Model the fold of this input.
Amino acid sequence: MNTEQKIIVPLDVSTLEEALALVERLEQVSFWKVGLELFVSCGPKILEVLKSKSKRIFLDLKFHDIPNTVRGACRAAASYGVDLLTIHATCGKDAMKAATEAVQEGASLAGVKPPKLIAISLLTSISSRQLAFDLKIPLELPEYVLSMALMAQEVGLDGAVCSPQEVAQLRQTCGDDFLLVCPGVRPIWAESGDQARSLTPAQALKAGADYLVIGRPITAAANPDRAWEKICEEIATST
Ligand SMILES: O=C(O)c1cc(=O)[nH]c(=O)n1[C@@H]1O[C@H](COP(=O)(O)O)[C@@H](O)[C@H]1O
Done:
């Protein structure tokens, strides 16, 4: 897989028209993320469009509910034939286990390939301070992220979402077969916005990320094509 195929761009817009405009403008992008804003606004239609263009799809619905509800949602989501699907690790072991079974069932009933199911370890917008003071978690942030990833791995999930700052530790502990997806990636020229634990694209890949999710530095740039090229060049020249 070349480096460009490791960059997932989120379609964080609220209309199908805006989403299609981005997909058409950035035709070099092979892996798109459909998240809560677009899916809640427009439903699954965008998934068919992306498939008709042979794009890979990360359906990022971040399920967080009791096991029975998560099971039903994962079964339905897996029937769309997407490549990646998310659930929060904080659902707990039973819900994650139900989710792993449900994606197999849903995909098999629909006759499609099951998605890789990955767990959100800790949202990349949460800082150490917020973890301690707002969420009242009495662990150091890297230790907490690792423990969520290990719990997901133990119940059979395919991987985890973490920030680039934790990915080296997760790669070392969880091994090469555990899929690690990093949002919260920022080139040095981009604003961090609400991301609290960033590194650059090249740093994140070097630290062991399988995929990077990079949104606003590309999609909100004055020239998204140029921003995409710049990121690819920066990665290429740093390796
Ligand atoms: O699951 C995700 O993709 C995700 C998890 C996480 O912890 N942090 C995070 O930012 N994301 C998503 O990654 C994307 C990051 O977008 P930018 O901050 O614009 O690069 C958004 O679509 C977020 O929903």
Notes: Residues 10, 12, 33, 35, 60, 86, 120, 123-124, 161, 183-184, 193, 195, 213-216 surround orotidine-5'-monophosphate (CB under 6 Å). The chain has a mean pLDDT of 97. Strands lie at 7-10, 31-34, 56-63, 84-88, 116-120, 159-161, 179-182, 211-213. The longest strand covers residues 56-63.
